[in-house]
Amino acid sequence: MSSARLLLGIGLAVAACRPALAEDAHAWIGAPDCRLAAVKPAPVGAPTWSGGCKDGYAEGKGVLEWHADKGDAYRLSAAFHAGLVQGEGELRFPDGGEYTGTLKDGVPEGNGYYRNAKGSQYQGEIHAGRFDGIGEVLYFTGDAYKGQLKDDKPNGLGRMRYALGGSYEGSWKDGKPSAQGKLVHAGLPARPAVAVDGFDPEKRFIAPAKSYTLKEDHARTGTSLALDVSRAVPVPPTAAYDELTAEQQAMVNSWYPALAPGDEPPYPLHGPAEYLRFVSKVVGQTRTRGVIRIYVDVDKDGKAVSVKATGLDDPEARRLISLGAGTVAYKPARCAGQPCEMTYGYNMALSVE
Length: 353
Known about the structure:
Blueprint (H helix, E strand, L loop, with lengths): L1 E5 L13 E2 L6 E4 L2 E4 L1 E2 L7 E2 L2 E3 L2 E11 L5 E9 L2 E9 L5 E7 L2 E9 L5 E7 L2 E9 L5 E7 L2 E9 L5 E7 L2 E10 L5 E2 L3 E2 L3 H4 L7 E4 L12 E6 L12 H9 L12 E2 L4 H14 L3 E9 L5 E8 L3 H13 L2 E2 L1 E3 L2 E3 L1 E11 L1
Antiparallel strand pairs: 1-29, 2-5, 3-4, 6-8, 7-8, 8-9, 9-10, 10-11, 11-12, 12-13, 13-14, 14-15, 15-16, 16-17, 17-18, 18-19, 18-20, 21-22, 23-26, 24-25, 24-29, 27-28
């Protein structure tokens, strides 16, 4: 039985590249006649080196692979000279994360590109393996940041563009807006707000008080049980926006970091149930698994004008699920009391049971 699970997951952190070659060039690993600079985490057992050797040290292009104490596998592809990395290299981590860029003594340093296992991406300046300087982050949620960073987080001046609409530009500290900045509310036409102080999108977010399960319309043949279509749905799946409680509406509104007070986001006209049933059928046919995020631009008449999707390795399943989202009828957003254009998002973890 297949199920499409609708989950909420608004997260801004991007894990930086931690494992790398140590800066201490006097510590060595590898065979006595082909030494390399020590790595962190330290290898359990002998590492493998596929490149050449010269005067007792790794030399030229090659691949260094090793396992840490938990069996995690690391892979570094780079050019070595006298056992040390020279110039750019490619680091691959056990969780699927990858880094491509410049290195110093094997540690990411200078400028590079990083993609973590969730799909968040970073391009920019790096110091001692951390995001530090000017860079751009595309988060797995679809939010995008451009500006100054320190210790992997927005710090300094920068602009965050939210996937569900609107943006914030100003000062940041430890990943959160700090002091005054310029806020543009979600919805089109764009409506800049006056300078805001202490804007914190994380404090806006309201976790669901309970979750709901959507079942099939009818029991399967030969049984009296209707199987689950979707679990962990944060709202009653068959309820329209106007049928949600005030608390449930506030929760839906809180998914939008830049929603203006009094505005309403778009919403499936009759609730998300029918679309979740459609997704469940696609999952059953394609047997696909994974996380997919769908962003539907809804016009002031409640029609989907464009659909974007991220995640999911199966391109055919991603295409079908995206097409389905575009056929849903939506309640249009309301900005300052009038229908307006805005984005609606689905965040689903798909599994086959």
